[in-house]
Amino acid sequence: MTGFTELTGKAAPLDQANIDTDQIIPKQFLTGVTRSGYGKHLFHDWRYLDLHEQELNPEFTLTQEKHKGAKVLLSRENFGCGSSREHAPWALADFGFGCIIATSLADIFYSNCINNQLLPIALSSNIMDDLFEHVASNPDVIFHIDLPNQTVRVGESSYKFEIAQHHKQNMIKGLDAIGQTLDFDESISAFEKNRAAWL
Amino acid sequence: MAQTIYDKVWNAHIVEQLGEDTLLYIDRHLIHEVTTPQAFAGLNENNRKVRRPDLTFGTMDHSISTRSLALDACGPQNKLQLQTLADNCAAHNIQLYPVGHKNQGIVHVIGPQLGLIHPGMTVVCGDSHTATHGAFGALAFGIGTSQVEHVLATQTLKQSKAKSMKIEVAGKLPIGVTAKDIILAIIGKIGHAGATGYVIEYCGEAISELSMEQRMTICNMSIEAGAKAGLISPDQKTIDYLKEKDFAPSKEHWDDAVSYWQSLTTDSDAIFDTVVTLQAKDIQPQITWGTNPGQVIGINQAIPSPDDFDDPIEKESAVKALKYMGLEAGQTWDNVKVSHVFIGSCTNSRIEDLRAAAKVAASGKVKSHITAIVVPGSVAVKEQAEKEALDVIFKAAGFEWRLPGCSMCLGMNDDVLQPGDRCASTSNRNFEGRQGRGSRTHLVSPEMAVAAALTGSFADSRQFGE
Fold first, then answer.
1. Residue B19 banded pLDDT, cuts 50, 70, 90
2. What is the CATH number that goes with domain B285-463?
3. B406 annotated binding-site participant
4. Is A82 within 8 Å of chain B by CB?
5. Which of A16, A38, B151, B184 lies 20 to 30 Å (CA to CA) from residue B400?
6. From the DSSP assignment, how many helices (H) and strands (E) are in chain B?
7. Common-topology check for domains B9-262 and B285-463
8. CA geometry: angle B287, A75, A99, nearest 5 deg
9. ipTM
């Protein structure tokens, strides 16, 4: 995997709390056996007026011309709640997003994002108000996401965000998490020798 | 230092401490067709093996038909995914319980039923309802597909420790109020994201008095409050439940296992990051009115108005939810007509759920305009129910009696609702479109679901069945 350091692009606003993974990618698209091709089904129920994805809903944020090509998605509390389906970050990334900024993100969704080089950022409710305001007044405003410095810059404003160091390093270096763990093979084997006899 | 059960299970599984991260050993890995194909593909691409196929168990549940045992009954794409699981399990020597096998069923129903889950274990599955297994005092949580691949390859997972939350349900539960009502009331109190970043320990008299299956219902929905996991300390009921199950410790090790399990209680002076208390006597049969499980009220309460909420986000969520659900503020439940009833899912499809539902079903008939289905959680549950002639009661009342699977909880098969359909459902999520685009889901207990089927609208199940 390639590493993530910086991202520059427009942001699309989904000003709503509790956006669950069933909205991000509904169940009928979970029957795939590969990781690719989920972007066209992203937010299916909101984005399309029909079941066959022929007719776009012109009122939905992501179909509006002014938000085309956005690389950052803005949302509110508890983004990505619900199912553990990794198809959610696969769909968001395949659609073109590289970063999700929300007031808070659900735990499993957050890990799934990290494992897919999709940067999840949680910022306070007040800062989110500012970010939504930036996009409302100028949909073309450019967001600069700087992971090494942990900042989101928009116009003259700059906001610091928190991320666990190990998540940060894995994102930046694009490390193979399994390969890293396999380096501890001896420790794992030693642990296994001491497991209870009934397990 | 005084420890919680979460601390004890966590500490017993540390392989390596890596700064703020911990490499945890995983005792049990449950797998199913939907969240594993890409994980096995990743292993194959990197020439990696499954480290412990003996600790890994698979079943088919999410995308299978509940009308036919044929893998292609729900179309070629579903069949390909099911066949891929079968091929991957065969190639990696993993025990699979496919459609047609006596041990097949919903992954969170068969795990406990087979004795695969013991107190003190770490348990993972690519499914957010893995918290179900916390009922045994196991640390059980849902993971994504990349993590499934990580566990397959290493039998470990890197984790940061969550905060701890104690939820005490004090006193005795009123008669006719169920485990489902307890967990819905808890989520209603703390909110849909109220436990994000936490592992919950449920305790108190009302929890201790629950059977193992009822405890599974409680722990199952921990994720619906955002929790990483939810668990309950093992006690004599846990030990009795496990005795003589297929994968319980053998006779030779039984006493050692039991004495270890008995040590898995939270020390009396342990400190939790957050403590929440509910009085069991205040809990009524619950129904969700909105589009997340935290939007829930009692059967005797009227549908709320957005003005009832001070928080602007909750207020706006309520406006959206009422519109989507086709409900009006102030409406009473007897005026909310249902078109479908679903009894099943990893929350409420076990034998005790079906017994409780059948008891209510015996007192009437499903209204003619309602489609009502009962989907047992596993082949074993189905067979036991048939032995007790519960299927006869359901069919006589007008319910369809189906084959085991996840079914209408998420509608990955053909058990899908149409726009505008309104369903009384014993499942766990009432999200927009969860059971089919434009469909409306109300989460309830099995007894309440049957009461809705017999009445045609929502009714208090306590007035039936005696």
1. confident
2. 3.30.499.10
3. yes
4. yes
5. B184
6. 15, 19
7. yes
8. 130
9. 0.96
